[in-house]
# Entry
Amino acid sequence: MGEKQLMKGNEAIAEAAIRAGMTCYFGYPITPQNEIPAYMAKHLTKRGGTFIQAESEIAAINMVYGAACTGARAMTSSSSPGISLKQEGISYLVGARLPAVIVNIARGGPGLGNIAPSQADYFQAVKGGGHGDYHMVVYTPETVQEAADLTMKAFDVADEYRNPVLILGDAILGQMMEPLVFKEPSGKKFDKSSWTLGNRKGRKSHLINSLSLEEGVVEQWNWELKKKFDLMAEKELMVEEYMVEDADVIFVAYGTTARICRSVVHQTRKQGMKTGLIRPITVWPFPTETIARHAEKTKHFFVVEMSLGQMIEDVRLAVLGNAKIHFHGRPGGGIPAEADILKQLKEILQSQE
# Structure
């Protein structure tokens, strides 16, 4: 464990990636994630890595593809519209079974929108923004410390499953400064010799591709990928349950919005209201069973998102009609206010009387 440092979320993610053994970063500037490529430009090459500011987001994700083929730990980052441009490349990475880490510091949309925080990229992240059947583990850090920790973890998970991993943050997480301590890397070793490209002496040459025009081959390949996705869903789920055991109302929120809801829980508990919080740390895999278990005894779930409502669909599927679901959303860069959430919560509790 190192010394405590004060860093922006974006810079913490960049430093954590370097410490995790990332040697190749390819990106293109867009607010509010610009501190990530700026940090990489300043620090990565000094520490033996490769930094390239690509000519576009599309070029950057394809550079990640190429670097990943060699076995390098590769990463790119962007913000909402830029991530949209990377979707084809992300699908190619999954199809070719290549590990990579992708960071989305999301902004308000749709379209160019603004540079304010948003959670309206949820569908894109968890439902597969690109073409074909695929999944990525999607981490949604709540704090700068967690952003650094999950970035380090993301590289191990990507290598273990040979699959890209997404860090889904927002403009608040990327821009705010908090103290953190960088943890030591896991030290896990991954033998990549069986699949990486190369024709050096004593090393077998391999072909990495996601194209096959032979009948039935791609279908069978999809079934093989599904086995991996099922294993990822079983092994990589992360969720926090906070003061939920006696709760009359359970908030469901992730990332920055979870911080706001946690504060509301503290306020309401002091006022004698029994509330709690379920915080998905991975939104894929989603904590369906956790929510379903609590829906057997808790009759009100309160979903809060910085969007018009996207994660709420997965909450509905988990609850399966066993509880009432309420929603508070702020789209287009709007940030939910504790006072507004508290007012709506009191209306929910009064309806029980």
About this structure: The two ends are 51 Å apart (CA to CA). The mean pLDDT is 96. The chain has two domains: 5-235, 240-352. The first strand starts at residue 5 and ends at 8.
